[in-house]
Design goal:
Length: 350
């Protein structure tokens, strides 16, 4: 079948977004506007879509011969397999909404061929490494299961999909991080607390050298997406020495530029803060001169009851690079304690 000259018609007809046109009670007519080109060759190589797509090509040729401008088309004439191709080029949210168009769209929006496109390429490995057995009867059901946090890697990491877009988030547990002296019970203690999604968290007893590092491969994240890295923690009532000097935070992707900044691990006790400023104000200024200049970021409260501080952000491209994150407070030399570390989260930014 000759495809030359048809690409423009196809692109003008098929797109992830569509506009309602000439509705009726028993049938729906829709007009698709150009938004994204279709990889025609790839579609035709798929046996599951071959019949539907060839039928659609024939329909385009018929309209071209009749010299009719293709403004609207009754969607009931499109085969379900062709509709599935269209929906697979949209988003999970759009695919769900499209089920209201017609029975053909409703059936296509449930097909495995559509939802497999929304799943990460390594979803099979994620399912096999899940701590709990994931039971599902369709790819859509699996997708919805993965929209809730799933523990993987022997329970040391948490995986989650963003429901509306399918973008990937990971949380590296404290056990997956490199924390200086964390195996010495004199400085750190590993414990289980009900508020954590992981079996263990790391609680700082007392130490003068605070150093936390995390690392993940960029290929495990969604490509062409901007990510933020966040340290998840709690400050206990017995916390001390954490904010006499700013901590230095950093993020580095591959061998590229290293992002650096500063952050304060402040407790939420304002009275305690005023007392420390009164007695240690001059010393704080002297200690602060030892660290790099930065924004002096502060903790923010999360919906899950934990606190977080952003370590940095980066754009995740197509390649596979090491993403390294860290928080260090090693220049004040004062004793500090009362910090509970749950992990580091990497999630897409809005």
């Amino acid at each position: 079948m000759k495809r030359t000259g048809l690409r423009k018609d196809i692109c003008n007809f098929i797109a992830p977004s569509f506009v309602f046109c000439e509705p009726s009670f028993y049938s729906f007519s829709w007009k698709f506007r150009y938004n994204q080109q279709i990889p025609i060759g790839k579609v035709q190589q798929s046996n599951s879509f071959a019949f539907g797509f060839d039928s659609f090509i024939g329909l385009l040729q018929k309209n071209r011969k009749k010299k009719k401008k293709m403004e609207c088309l009754d969607m009931n004439v499109l085969p379900e397999s062709c509709v599935a191709v269209i929906l697979s080029l949209t988003s999970p949210a759009d695919a769900c909404k499209s089920s209201l168009v017609s029975s053909t769209f409703q059936s296509a929006s449930e097909s495995d061929s559509v939802w497999e496109r929304f799943l990460p390429s390594d979803y099979g490995e994620i399912v096999s490494k899940a701590s709990d057995n994931l039971e599902f009867s369709s790819k859509k059901e699996l997708y919805l299961l993965l929209c809730n946090p799933v523990l993987v890697a022997d329970g040391k990491m948490s995986f989650k999909l963003e429901r509306s877009t399918g973008r990937i988030s990971y949380i590296l547990s404290a056990r997956e991080l490199s924390i200086t002296w964390s195996n010495d019970p004199m400085y750190w203690v590993w414990k289980s607390i009900p508020e954590s999604r992981f079996a263990e968290v790391a609680e700082l007893k007392t130490v003068s050298w605070l150093e936390i590092h995390g690392k993940i491969r960029s290929k495990t994240l969604t490509p062409n997406t901007r990510y933020g890295a966040y340290l998840l923690l709690k400050i206990t009532d017995r916390a001390f020495g954490l904010d006499l000097i700013p901590s230095e935070i950093s993020l580095e992707v591959g061998n590229g530029a290293k992002f650096t900044n500063t952050a304060y691990l402040r407790s939420q006790d304002s009275k305690k803060q005023r007392m420390e400023d009164l007695f240690y104000g001059n010393r704080k200024q002297m200690l602060k001169s030892r660290v790099i200049e930065g924004e002096d970021r502060v903790l923010s409260e999360r919906e899950d009851g934990w606190m977080e501080i952003e370590l940095g952000e980066f754009f995740n491209g197509e390649g596979d690079k090491a993403v390294k994150m860290s928080l260090m407070e090693v220049k004040g030399h004062q004793l500090k304690g009362g910090l509970i570390v749950e992990g580091i989260e990497l999630r897409p930014k809005s």
